[in-house]
Amino acid sequence: MTDQKTFYITTPIYYPSDKLHIGHAYTEVAADALARFKRHQGYDVMFLTGSDEHGQKIQRIAKERGVTPQEYVDKIVDGFQHLWQTLDISYDDFIRTTEERHIKAVQAIFQRLYDSGDIYKSEYEGWYCVPCESFWTEHQITEEHICPDCGRPVELVKEESYFFRLSRYADRWLKYVEDNPEFIQPTSRRNEMISFVKQGLEDLCVSRTTFDWGIPVPFDPKHVIYVWIDALANYITALGFPLEDQSKFERYWPADLHLVGKEIVRFHTIIWPIMLMALGLPLPKKVFGHGWLILESGKMSKSKGNVVDPLVLVDKYGVDAIRYFLLREIPFGADGYYSEDALIKRINSDLANDLGNLIYRTLTMMNKYFGGVVPAPGSEVAPDDELKRVAQEAVTNAQAAMDRLEISTALEAIWDLVKRANKYIDETAPWTLAKNGEMERLATVMYNLAEVGRILAVLLVPYLTTTPGRIWEQLGLTGSPADVGWDAAKKWGLLTPGVKTHRGAPLFPRIDLEKEEQTVEEQKQPAAEASKPEAKSAQQDKISYDEFAKVQLKVAEVLVAEQVPKSKKLIRLEVAIGEERRQIVAGIGKSYSPEELIGKKIVVVTNLQPVKLMGLESNGMLLAASFPGEGEDRAISLLTVDRPIDSGASIR
Ligand code: MSP
After folding, report:
1. To test the ligand 1 pocket, which listed residue (10, 13, 14) has its Cβ within 8 A of the most ligand atoms?
2. What is the CATH number that goes with domain 536-651?
3. How many CB atoms lie within 10 A of CB 67?
4. Cα–ligand 1 centroid distance for 163 (angstroms)
5. What CA–CA distance (Å, rounded) separates 163 from 171?
6. CATH topology of domain 339-489
């Protein structure tokens, strides 16, 4: 246990001034993926988050609401913890700055800094931004007295204060940052910080007397400690520094990674390291400033009224879909846009079509050709070698990307394997192998596909929290993919032949953007509806022959086919059924072009009541097979007759 490598990762502790939104969830989900990745690789991980509960801003809000600051923060922090549980955030500790363990430790730290002469008493006169809890000098603010960070007005404050000697450490800081290029990342933020410090560092005002919602200065209790000194210290007070048992501190400090949003990089890379230097403690190995998740109307904030509630999204789309979107959509470090359309597109293309479909097709064929039992593979034939190579590359590339904190690149690397495996199905065409009786080759193909499923389950553990286990279970494996560790993805062939798979519902149901057409389709296509997972039990209910005989099925010949204007899916058909001509409107436009339909002999239900679709009467329904979860382009296959027969022929 003791020689196990450790990984200490932190996220900022959040202000309980607002309800948390999807932007906050972004930081937390990213940190969670990194923490899970390291655990999966065998590290002893310490993942810390928490809440930053002091300061003038909180005191003002509580007063406005007629409650004590403590009552106010207690309620909001409960909400934070509920959100993190909903998003499956696997933090090891949650620190609240109003906890006794933190308050006492911060006071001890302040005392040490005072004793060493790094904190001294003087008078402060200057500018303060209440929402940001930031002090600014005259030359940092514009003539309009606007906060350079948030653009809101700053206040002139004058009071007796304690100061922290930042100026004493400027040269040491510059040398450290220049000698340790990895310390501040990405490089653009490092360069910003270097030029900020090169302009000169002034001592920082670290106490206030005009309000009292904070930690009292131990030797002068009419002062409360500046909220950023209080907050930054959480990264070591949570480890018990300096008053409690020091074993955690010794084990995990210095932190491997402080993950923070770009607007608080300055506090984490200048004030915090200088506090540590003054305390004689080692500096964190890396501070990474990620970008913001923004809406078209700008950065999310309660005052702008443009916040997106992650709880609502999880309820609607599921936790793995939200986690996947946050991790995949935006290159980590850059700003990126959030929209529900973009979220749905990701769910449909990457999760439903690519991943869900691969697993569903694999297990459907496993059932069909081998009674659900994974067969032993035979000899290797192209393109097996390429599939194996892509699997190995997915592991290596995902690992390298995670080590560079490029989470979206890691997911792209994993999806290279998902896509290659789908292509492998198309190339090897298991249905043709089955038809031709090439059972040994079919066994190899099916084994390889199941093995890709196993590897994917292992690779997805850091990012998705329920899907890897579901894949594992469907493959008939025991335990969980998190237990076997990342290295289990590196080895090809760990899946034991003979294992009985259990195909379940598709992993991710598709979400239809074209709701109107979807509703129409549901009315029109009871067959497709019946293949949805929730309709499975109804499908098992037997009907009598008489009931079946009520449905009149006939062969029809397509005479005319044209796209319905303003619809991507609907096609207007004129068909001949014997002597009779009819108009049928069908939702097959994403799978068939009008040209290829003309002349086809298809199967039609002739005794359905007519319906109107986009203003056109549809008199009958054509039959088509659809594969649940399949891509739109290949989802539908029309039923046709396989020998020449005249239209109008009855089907029984
Ligand atoms: N309390 C301070 C941190 C103290 S750490 C010692 C704070 N809290 S915060 O609640 O305002 O923000 C917490 C984190 O959420 C920050 O890293 C911030 O960048 C992040 N985000 C807030 N809105 C965000 C987006 N719209 N997009 C991405 N991250 C966002 O700052």
Report:
1. 14
2. 2.40.50.140
3. 14
4. 26
5. 19
6. Isoleucyl-tRNA Synthetase; Domain 1 (1.10.730)
